[in-house]
Amino acid sequence: MPELRRDPVTERWVIISEERRGRPSEYRPAEEFAPLAHCPFCPGHEAQTPPTLLSTPGPAGWQTRVFANRFPALRVEARSGITSTELYGHSDGLGAHEVMVESPLHSDDYASMDAAALLAVLTGWQSRVRDLSRDERLAHATIFKNAGAQSGATLSHPHSQLIATPIVPPAVLDRMEGAARFWRRTGHCVYCAMALEAESSGARLVWSDAQAVVFCPYAPRVGFECIVSPRQHESQFEQASEAVLAGVAGAMSRLFGALREALPRVSYHLSIQTAPLRSAPSASDHWYLEVLPVLSRHAAFEMASGMNIVSTAPETAAAYLRERLPGTQ
Ligand SMILES: [Zn+2]
Ligand SMILES: [Zn+2]
Predict the structure, then answer these.
(1) Could you tell me the distance, in angstroms and rounded to a whole number, from the CA of residue 283 to the centre of ligand 2?
(2) Ligand 1 centroid from CA 293, angstroms
(3) How far is the CA of 49 from the centre of ligand 1 (A)?
(4) How far is CA 213 from CA 129, 166, 238, in A?
(5) Rg over CA atoms, the chain
(6) For residue range 103-120, what is the model confidence (pLDDT) as tens digits?
(7) Domain ranges of the chain
(8) 237: nearest Cα among 291, 176, 287, 162
(9) Counting ligands in written order, which one lies closest to the CA of residue 155?
(10) From ligand 1's centre to the CA of 129, what distance in Å?
(11) How far is the CA of 192 from the centre of ligand 2 (A)?
(12) Distance CA 321, CA 255 (A)
């Protein structure tokens, strides 16, 4: 059974889930994906995955399909509740871990999928988050994607994942506390402020329209880090209207078209940064999508200091991406 453990110094929680060691390509050299004779995510192989929880219609019978992860990091059957000793905190590995196959096409990716296909991914996840938020034992849902052999992905067929946790993850708490501090100091949402500044200065802006702004953050953690921020100020992804999601999908389509030209075949990590489940609307917090390309391995200094060394300035990255936006070459 997976479990959660709390570090007594940093008070950060970790998930211990040894069951995931049995995944198909774990410990395989990460340089390239091994060719799979039978991809479990391709149409016609639905019986090789757990049963479908949600699907959207498409030419192959479905456009997107969601099911429980066969190697879950956390499980809904676990008991809830945190026990603490003087030194450590512990909780059973309660949670949910789901997979979405994002396209019936094995070789699709976000650059080749159009805005309608990207919107089907966002609306599919939104409906799963709305469903899971009814389970009061769950505190937060993280939607994320590992794409490419260097990202830790184990299958190349386009897919993303959701992990719902019984605690609010430390990175989310840190982000919300930082945004609240900025709001107390200035009376503004820091994410709205960063998007507006990117647009007015232009230096770190990749693309914007009436619905969304794409920019490289001022102090990125990795080269070519990008944020896709809906213009509508809203703290929860699951509350966003279809029009807002369509705007984000259109912006993603532009960004991934530019990334394909700028960094061909780059691996990346993507996540939706959003407020805890069932939380009240917040003036200081703002949901968005972040993309972290995998361009270098973090080394001892980064691990020891928590300070990343980034070799491409965000102004350079944004200019490079702007020149490669689809339809502008
Ligand atoms: Zn496939
Ligand atoms: Zn905002």
Answers:
(1) 7
(2) 23
(3) 12
(4) 24, 32, 19
(5) 20
(6) 999 999 999 999 999 999
(7) 3-19+29-168, 171-322
(8) 287
(9) 1
(10) 25
(11) 4
(12) 8
Give the number of whichever ligand sits closest to the CA of residue 39.
Answer: 1
Torsion of CA 106, 108, 114, 115, to 10 degrees: 90
Q: Which of 202, 314, 222, 174 is nearest to 213 (CA)?
A: 202
Out of 3.40.50.150, 3.90.1300.10, 3.40.50.300, 3.30.428.10, select the CATH number for domain 171-322: 3.30.428.10
For ligand 2, an ion, list residues with CB under 5 A.
189, 191-192, 233, 286
- Minimum mean pLDDT among 70-84, 128-142, 151-165, 296-310: which range? 296-310
Taking the centre of ligand 2 as the mean of its atom positions, its distance from the CA of residue 196, in whole angstroms, is 10
Q: Which pLDDT score is estimated for 176?
A: 96
Instruction: List pLDDT tens digits, range 11-40.
Output: 788 888 877 665 655 444 445 555 566 899
Q: In what order do the strands lie in the sheet with 64-68?
A: 52-56, 64-68, 96-101, 159-165, 140-147, 268-273, 288-293, 226-230, 212-215, 205-208
**Ligand closest to the CA atom of residue 233:** 2
Structural contact between residues 98 and 160, judged by C-beta atoms closer than 8 angstroms: no
From the CA of 286, the nearest ligand is 2
